[in-house]
Write the structure tokens for this entry.
Amino acid sequence: SFPVQESEELLLVTDKGQLIRTGVAQIRIAGRATQGVWILRTSEDEHVVAAERLEDVGGEEAGEGE
């Protein structure tokens, strides 16, 4: 685990090549009594091999303003 800010995004990659990029603000906050929040569902033989925090780049998408 690692700390994140609401303005950042998460990038997750599995050993089967599945990739997801999602904004931290889009992830539901759950209380202690819960079992967590699903961000990426994997198959039984698939594992997350990388998780990276992407910093906010000012809200501009790649290629905007060119």
Summary: The mean pLDDT is 84. The longest strand covers residues 48-54. DSSP finds no helices and three strands in the chain. Strands lie at 9-14, 19-23, 48-54.
